[in-house]
Amino acid sequence: MKFSAITVDVTSLGINTPDGFFTAHYSKRGLARLDFPNAIGEKSRRESNGRPVSAEMQAWHKMTTRAVREVLAGGTHGELPPLDLSAGTEFQQSVWNALRKIARGRTKSYGEVAAVIGRPKALRAVGGACGANPIPLLVPCHRVLAANHKLGGFSGGLDWKRKLLGREGLEFFE
DNA sequence: TAACATTCCGCGC
DNA sequence: GCGCGGAATGTTA
Hints:
Elements: E1 11-17, E2 20-26, E3 31-35, H1 55-72, H2 90-99, E4 108-109, H3 110-116, H4 123-131, E5 144-145, H5 158-167
Parallel strand pairs: 4-5
Antiparallel strand pairs: 1-2, 2-3
Helix pairs in contact: 2-4, 3-4
The structure holds a DNA duplex.
């Protein structure tokens, strides 16, 4: 089931946090992507395209900003803007949906997540879906560990995963 | 077809 | 217990 990429104009807005400058991308449907500060050429960090941002989008960005800061501080995020997950396949969306149900400070293994969505043997694919997750932090892909309670991997860098888990109170990973 | 952010089993240490 | 090698596994580009 594929959906060839439609071109949707997205607006990029920055989020300044004690941990760096995140970038949020919004489509008409909601928050479509969230980028870590990290990284490689720190791509485009331009704020919107010069054009005024709609009131609705400003409201979304306000929620996103607050949510990101709260998560970084180790708390629970409050209200979130609508998430635009239309970029993912159905399988990926069901995985991301399952991830959102993991409470703060809790973890699941890739196998458990696979079982939750009714495909116990697709555990390997769950890993792939996590890697494709466009909205880390808000979709807590960092709470998924390997079965033996090992870290597994993380797109944004394993140090992030450790840091986030540590701030949620899992002292094991400090 | 060839990757994988997996997991399980059997080794040897 | 820990680490390594190898095999089976579902989804994706």
